[in-house]
UniProtKB/TrEMBL annotation:
InterPro entries: Ald_DH/histidinol_DH, Ald_DH_C, Ald_DH_CS_CYS, Ald_DH_CS_GLU, Ald_DH_N, Aldehyde_DH_dom, Aldehyde_DH_Superfamily. Its EC number is 1.2.1.-. Residues 18-467 form the Aldehyde dehydrogenase domain. CDD domains: ALDH_F5_SSADH_GabD. SUPFAM superfamilies: ALDH-like. The keyword Oxidoreductase applies. It comes from Sphingobium cyanobacteriorum. Belongs to the aldehyde dehydrogenase family. It comes from the Bacteria. This is NAD-dependent succinate-semialdehyde dehydrogenase.
Length: 475
């Protein structure tokens, strides 16, 4: 099946399109689509702002009904959406199907949560007054989404915006715009007004990012991507105090204590480290393993990683796909080679890359000061760091500018609580390798960003609180 045969994206393909979408596994050109320039995006923002007025006046139930219709269409087209994700991002088809279900869950969640945007009443300061608050939509929003989860990163932002009564304009990653366009098509088919949610694929990412931050009608920008780009957007948004939600880089520690269930910890690493070839913001970036179980844990992990099958995500049996492109694979290979040169041992995998592919790799003898332990790897490489005791593990884990996600494995409930509270991260998973869910607040601290996605907090990020003082209430 070729991308041209998929009706969800066929209408967007242009023979003369400036954006060329490629399959990272094969290098084949999937198709070409139009690129939006700043003037075109500005006009789209104007239309979105006009459309939000009527949308905000809809009842929460009416908005919920349309979001539910969108959710139903996403699930009805799950197989085709998964194929598009795999073809343009490279991830194994089974993972792509999981992403469709995960992304759809945010639409369903916020379809319901939008009906619970409650205000409050507050005791007044005099017999003649009453105090109340209401929540209102923030206005026209913009979003910039990455290529590693091209469907879920969009629904995680668009669903709460629409549920809150906002309009939203999305700039998807240049590498994976087709999934975004397919979502837009399904949303419009569900009855969501066309101007209310628009996808603006572009080759001018920097210019559109600056436009989102400085356009007078954009009240909020949600960005998922690197800390470096987040810092640039934050500075630009300061010009008109545009509200920001930033989900930025990570350097997640995966801590294995000597009382851990080692088999469970190994499976947790497989889920966290090697899913999407290590290209996730909450990926286990460093494995911190206590002295007493270090060798046994590494041996079990090497055996398990050896069972991964690298290949084209569309091929049966593939469990490890390519990175997004050859440049990223070469960058990861350079990190591995640097660590090898510094004396680290490669237990499985290697330093070489082949096109966009990099083998699943485990390295021991890593120390916290090495680039491979300080940088966000964003590839299928697991550096293992030894530690001695609880305090040592906490010190190493917190020695980073990032604070997105952390993982720990232990069967000592006292230790679990102490370490969980001491870790300087927005999210901590205990004895689990995957922590993201639509019902929980997703986000980080330090230079991993601000704001939360998912849960009731994710809806609140698209709403303003209005306080009303009601006077003259007594005779």
């Amino acid at each position: 099946m070729t991308i041209e045969t998929l009706a969800l994206v066929s209408d967007y393909l242009r023979a003369d399109g400036a954006i060329v979408v490629e399959n990272p596994a094969t290098g084949a050109v999937l198709g070409r689509i139009a690129s939006h320039d700043a003037d075109a995006v500005s006009a789209i923002i104007d239309k979105a702002d006009a459309a939000r007025i009527a949308w905000a006046q809809h009842s929460a139930q009416a908005r919920s009904n349309l979001l539910r219709a969108w959710h139903g269409l996403i699930l009805a087209h799950a197989d085709d959406l998964a194929r598009i994700i795999t073809l343009e991002s490279g991830k194994p088809l089974a993972e792509a199907k999981g992403e469709v279900a995960y992304g759809a869950s945010y639409v369903e969640w916020f379809a319901e949560e939008g009906k619970r945007a409650y205000g409050e009443t507050i005791p007044g300061f005099s017999p003649r007054s009453r105090i109340l608050t209401i929540r209102q939509p923030i206005g026209t929003c913009a979003a910039i989404t990455p290529w590693n989860f091209p469907l879920a990163m969009i629904t995680r932002k668009v669903a709460p915006a629409l549920a809150a009564g906002c309009s939203i304009v999305v700039k998807p990653a240049e590498a994976t715009p087709l999934t975004a366009l397919a979502l837009e098509k399904l949303a419009h088919e569900a009855g969501i007004p066309a101007d209310l949610f628009r996808v603006t694929a572009t080759k001018s990412s920097s210019a559109i990012g600056a436009l989102f931050c400085t356009h007078p009608l954009v009240r909020k920008l949600s960005f998922t991507g690197s800390t470096r780009v987040g810092q640039i957007l934050m500075a630009q948004a300061a010009q008109q105090v545009t509200r920001l939600s930033l989900e930025l880089g990570g350097n997640a520690p995966f801590i294995v204590f000597d009382d851990a269930d080692l088999d469970a910890a190994v499976e947790g690493v497989l889920a966290s480290k090697y899913r999407n070839a290590g290209q996730t913001c909450v990926c286990a970036n460093r494995l911190l393993v206590q002295d007493g179980v270090h060798d046994a844990f590494v041996a079990r992990l090497v055996a398990r990683v050896g069972q991964l099958r690298m290949g084209d995500g569309m091929a049966d049996g593939t469990t490890l796909g390519p990175l997004i492109d050859a440049r990223e694979a070469a960058r990861v290979a350079a990190l591995v080679e640097d660590a090898r040169t510094a004396g680290c041992a490669i237990k499985i995998g290697g330093t070489g890359s082949d096109g966009a592919f990099h083998p699943a790799t485990i390295m021991t003898g890593v120390t916290q000061d090495m680039p491979i332990a300080q940088d966000e790897i964003f590839g299928p490489v697991a550096p293992v760091i030894r530690f001695t005791d609880e305090a040592d593990a906490i010190r190493i884990a917190n020695d980073t500018i990032y604070g997105l996600a952390a993982y720990l494995y232990s069967r000592d409930i006292g230790r679990v609580w102490r370490v969980m509270e001491a870790l300087e991260y927005g999210m901590v998973a205990v004895n689990e390798g995957i922590l993201s869910t639509e019902t929980a607040p997703f986000g980080g601290v330090k230079q991993s960003g601000m704001g939360r996605e998912g849960s009731s907090h994710g809806l609140a990020d698209y709403m303003e609180i209005k306080y009303a003082l009601m006077g003259g209430m007594a005779g």
